Amino acid sequence: MGSVTLWMQISLDGFTEGPDEAVHWPVVDEELCTEYLDELRRADLLLYGRKTYEIMARFWPTADLAPVSPFYVDFARFWRAAPKLVVSRTLRNPAWNTRVIGPDLVDEVSRRKSAGQNMVLFGGAETARSFLEHELIDEFRLFVHPLLLGGGVPLFRSPVDTTGLRLMDVLTFDSAVVQMHYRQAACVMC
Asked: Which of 68, 83, 101, 146 is paired with 94 by a 20 to 30 Å CA distance?
């Protein structure tokens, strides 16, 4: 059985977007990205909401063309080649090994999980909530940033039953970002 792991940047007060849809506040530096690039390489598929995909697609396809660090070259090459699905009702003709799924989200992801595919979901919040509502998330990697946004779009809009979550590990980065990795207790093979 495959799995879906949600990777989400959140503020200390639980928001994934700040007021006025602000999404450029997370500290996503090389240390943070280097830590998870090896894990992403083990995923069979990357899942995105449209907004998050468009942010990634504006930067990573050409991030290795200017004089940059070896990490940027490595991640850009990985990102272009990685298979991606974007959850969207409006996106048309995506590039970079990407396919769009819409209303058949639950069937598509369930079928892929049954086929043994391991997927990483990058969100955003609306997409993550759809996955939560349909109980499609097996693991959480929450990257908590040391700032208070004071408003915006929360990751969890309604209470979530956390009794089935098991803390796997916690990592602290030099940027003071803390990654908390939880797994559903029922997810034995994830």
From this structure: 68
> Considering the domain boundaries, does residue 27 fall inside one?
yes
Structure confidence at residue 188 as a pLDDT band (50, 70, 90): low
Interatomic CA distance for residues 134 and 170, integer angstroms: 26
Angle (nearest 5°) at CA 16 between 12 and 18 = 85
The radius of gyration computed from the CA coordinates of the chain, to the nearest angstrom, equals: 16
pLDDT, tens digit, 9 for 90 and up, residues 20-45: 877 778 877 777 777 778 889 999 99
List, for residues 105-136, the tens digit of each pLDDT value.
899 999 999 999 999 998 788 899 889 889 99
**Cβ-count burial 142-178 (b if 16+ within 10 Å, e if not):** bbbbeeebeebbbbeeeeeeeeebeeeeeeeeeeebe
Give the domain CATH number at 78. 3.40.430.10
CB 98 within 8 A of CB 85: yes
Which amino acid belongs to residue 154?
Answer: P
**C-alpha separations of 16 from 5, 68, 144, 145, 155 in Å:** 16, 28, 10, 10, 6
What residues make up the domain containing 93? 3-184
